[in-house]
Amino acid sequence: MKFLDFLLNALAIGITFLYGSTGEIITEKAGHLNLGIPGIMGVGAACGCAALNVLCSTGTVPPALIVILGILAALAGGALMGLLYSFLAVTLRSNQNVTGLAMTIFGIGLTKFVFNRIQQTSVDGVKYLIAKKYFRFPFAWSTTSLQYLGVMVFLGIAVAIVSSIILSRTRVGLHLRAVGESPATADAAGINVTRYKYVATIIGSAIAALGGLFYVMDYSGSPEAYLSVEAMGWLSVALVIFSLWRPYLSIIGSFAFGALFILGSFLPSFGLSVDVATSNLVKTLPYVVTIIVLIITSIRNRRENQPPASLGVSYFREDR
Amino acid sequence: MEYAGTQMQPVLELRGISKSFGSIKANNNVDLELRRGEILALLGENGSGKTTLMNMVAGIYFPDEGQILINGEEVVIRSPKDAFDHKIGMIHQHFKLVDLFSAAENIVLGVNDGSKYNIKNVNERVRELCDRYGFNIDPKEKIHEMSVSQKQTVEILKVLYRGADILILDEPTAVLTPQETAKLFDVLRRMKADGKSIIIITHKLHEVLSISDRVAVLRKGEHIATVNTAESTESSLTEMMVGKKISLNIDRPEPKDTVWRLTVSHLSGLNEEGLPVLNDVTFSANGGEILGIAGIAGSGQRELLEAIAGIYNPDSGEILYNDPKTGETVNLRKKTPLQIRELGVRLSFVPEDRLGMGLVGSMDITDNVMLRSYRNGPLNLLDRGTPRQLAQDIVDDLSVVTPNLRTPVSRLSGGNVQKILVGREIASAPSLLMAAYPVRGLDINSSYAIYNLLNEQKSHGVAVLFVGEDLDVLLALSDRLLVLNSGRVAGIVDPRCATKEEVGFLMTKSHDEGSDSADDGTEGGAL
After folding, report:
1. What residue of A is the nearest CA neighbor of B122?
2. I need a surface site. Which of A173, A308, B75, B179 has the fewest CB within 10 A?
3. In this structure, which CATH number among 3.40.50.300, 3.40.190.10, 3.40.50.970, 3.90.470.20 belongs to the domain B6-242?
4. Is the preceding omega at residue A138 within 30 degrees of 0, hence cis?
């Protein structure tokens, strides 16, 4: 029973990483390394929770609508961040690493500001947490770890599967991958490189933003959760490498990451007594595993397991 | 189409096409016509404007003046997509393929015919095309697993898949072995029989004679003539290609006190694709004279100079160098590039990508000059004063146009970048100076400044190797002229009495003849 608890928990927290990595994979397939994912996830959580805080204070909005509007608000916040990143990195061709890190710094700052405001302005505490039980539909009544399997868990897996199909089976996916591998070739073939880069980055950012909302609203469901969104964001970026830029592998990877991430806190319930330091050390396992995966793929050096060839390189048609 | 005479109507006609890049006229008032179901060879030296002309048909460039007619109707081609819409497809020298994709995925890339995308159907259609024209390609194979000739086949399939009727191939045989070339020609003949019209850009005469129906010759951006291949010979085509000798008034002081400096013997090596790029190259160079090196682009010039500089590692042969300081003879093949530099060998290579080799684009002129002297200076501190003075001298002597010495070199024009590169190498007082294409892209005055610099080095007793493109310049400046042809020494001639036709013939004749007369050539060089 404890083990089942552990698995359900791992699956749930993994969904946070799944949103983040699916979004980042779509962006990276267009050749854009968006290191702003942690900030974008924060902004997603902030926008979603700010909207929920308003929606929940009236008490008249139907639950289904609350969930949908909350998700839409997070999507919009993420998309705006993606648009800003695209403008900087695609149109102005600024350095992608610098732009991404700036987005994270900006996004996390904005997140803290928004959550602070929510907590200060609401006299009787945060309202948005009321929505937690709606997000955890259909298992909100459960007292076991089953309660974590809310709508956004299924939505996350669905998004990863759909992304995977689009990338590998459709013309749009083929064109997107071509843009990320060799923008000059795509350009010569008549593909609008700039448009693909913009759309992929914006959609990817919007999806990643849902990860932030899911983590704060659904998985944690506590007022302080926003403080650890950034850490979730970096793990999502690591998961992209772990899953070799494939959304369907990311589903399995997110579960593995989730399991490793919570292993420390579950060790006592498995009958192993550990101190706090050890339990925190165990939390680093996802990063260790990612490094191992990087080493293995680098040694095997298969072209299929490498990042998109033009990742991180700005494209300018007249460059020779 | 019904009325009489359409048989003779060209599928593609160019009228009075001109195109300039800055002050350089790449094409001047060119007329050209391509008939249905023929193979037209477009012949010309490097820089004669062949590729530029065809790029205008393929939608890469837009002509400054002139008309393009397809089946007698004037069309405007502004992009590769426009060209596809008019059923024109060009196979460029540098392949545009996604390495990680399969052949079929590359072929279908960018094609949106409204049908549902299904890679199985694409594979099927590609197989049909392969059967029809005799290609040997697996649609599912990834590009990065393919040979160069297979990649080229994919490029051709890409064009055919889009339904092109007019195919333009830009030097398709440059990357192929003779066997692969023969195979390609079979395919071209099959496409011709299928009613396709083909333009093949080349500067290899034997290929022109074996594959084409007619030959259009370009020289210095102008259309010289279009002739029937059956009525042409290698010598008549060479004459049209190189033209009459032009007097350039470049100084050529008599070499004096020449001393033996370098002997390259039996040097052979392969390029990255595993094809032979240097083949038994033997010659020697003397201090106090300029040895010109002529050849079609990619005949091994780059590898030869890089081998001497220690950058390229040939498979066999020796490079013997007489160190003027000690009088000792050393084999450069056993030395590192740094050791070779310290022996006084300088390579001022001006490759296709000027900034890629030799200069750092984001650094300023002083810093770039310092790349050759950063080891000087007390302790680990850099000596900036001397390089700054040298940079100022280069800017003044060669009249480099720059706001100041702090300007990053990537902001300067190509010609100015080149002057800095050549100036820096010459300034280090070499005893063997190698300059490849040092005047490419430069205006007349800058070019003469460079020629004077090379002559000055010669008078100081430096052995100068000068790789050039313009035969007139090579014949006017060199004391001896070595001709490379497909990695072999086709001959060493005396530029004071050799004609352009002779040199052009040595540059372009086919392999078999090349090996015969290479022996004569080396003997001639001993004169």
Report:
1. A171
2. B179
3. 3.40.50.300
4. yes
Does the beta-carbon distance from A181 to B99 stay under 8 Å? yes
Q: Is A192 in CB contact (< 8 Å) with chain B?
A: no
**What's the average pLDDT block by block, 10 residues per block, for chain B (527 residues)?**
55 94 84 94 85 90 93 91 90 89 93 85 93 90 89 93 93 81 91 94 86 92 93 87 76 85 91 82 92 87 87 89 83 84 72 61 84 70 80 83 82 75 78 83 74 87 88 90 91 90 82 44 37
pLDDT at B3: 44
Token pair 């039980």 in the structure block, residue: A133
Of B80, B109, B144, the CB nearest to A174: B109
CB pairs under 8 A between A and B: 57
If you compute the radius of gyration of chain A from its CA atoms, what whole number of angstroms results?
A: 20
A182 — contact with chain B (CB < 8 Å)?
Answer: yes
Residues in Cβ contact with A123 at an 8 Å cutoff, skipping those fewer than 6 apart: none
Task: Delimit the domains of chain B by residue range.
Answer: 6-242, 245-344+431-527, 362-429
Fold adopted by B245-344+431-527: Rossmann fold (3.40.50)
Does this model's pTM top 0.90? My answer is no
Q: How far is CA B372 from the centre of its chain?
A: 28
Is the Cβ–Cβ distance between A188 and B96 less than 8 Å? yes
**Mean pLDDT in residue range A258-276:** 85
Instruction: Indicate the residue of A185, A304, A320 with minimum beta-carbon distance to B98.
Output: A185
Nearest chain A alpha carbon to B97: A185
Q: Strands B259-270 and B316-322: what pairing? A: antiparallel
- Residue A246 and residue A267: Cα distance in Å, rounded? 31
Does any CB of chain B come closer than 8 Å to the CB of residue A178? yes
Q: Which domains does chain A have, with CATH numbers?
A: 2-305 (1.10.3470)
Domain B6-242 shares a fold with domain B245-344+431-527? yes
